[in-house]
Amino acid sequence: MSGALTDGELAAHLAETAGRILLAVRDSGLFPGKALGVAGDQTANQFLCHALRAQRPEDGLLSEEEKDNEDRLARSRVWIVDPVDGTREYGEERADWAVHVGLAIDGVAALGAVALPGLDLVLRSDRPQPLPPGNRPPRMLVSRTRPAREAVAVAEQIGAELLAMGSAGAKAMAVVRGEADIYLHTGGQYEWDNCAPAAVAAAYGLHVSRADGSPLVYNRENTYLPDLLICRPEYAEPVLAAYRGVLAD
């Protein structure tokens, strides 16, 4: 790829290339057990961070696998990346893991690309597609290992089927792809877990917010973002109302 890349092209190129690197690391067979997750995280992180510093030297950078540099707080544009979202799934050779490359501008998830290397897909905020038809009854995504009590209770109230899946990015993109309709997360996340997925989901026309309906805000000193709602627009108010009811009980 030659010539100056737009932000969208850069995000997609980085996410796709990092995904190929991660598959090569896994396919090498050189890293037993938990060593594979460590090797994949560190290798993909080095690529993403070096490439972003080379391509966008004036921008800030926040990565799950990089020591935080508070210099980013003074920047309007900050790249927020997760080299391997779903390290467990990556290590287990599942498909429900992702690579996140997001760009926050003045605290808003303005642009993103999410690679799903196990599915050979990259979803981009700069090239949104029409949403597929929804499911009847609606499908709500939950963690495959530790479903949140609140999400299970909301699903019961609105009559949604539960669908267990791995990483946050894989879940968010399942809503984008029409495999599910609602992703309500209340178990705690960080900015890198949802910046790129939030940008892609919003570009596709999905509802994106905190679990109480307030906006997601990025590039904060404290990078903890405890909850998230990504869903088809028609389910936003029913889910928010049900969530408020669950909290009130």
TrEMBL record:
Q: Name one GO molecular function term.
A: 3'(2'),5'-bisphosphate nucleotidase activity
Required co-factor(s) are: Mg(2+)
| Keyword NADP recorded | no
Record keyword Magnesium present: yes
Q: Keywords, A to Z? A: Magnesium, Metal-binding
Which GO BP terms, alphabetically? Answer: 3'-phosphoadenosine 5'-phosphosulfate metabolic process; sulfate assimilation
Residue numbers binding Mg(2+): E64, D82, D85, D193
Tell me what this protein is called: MFS transporter
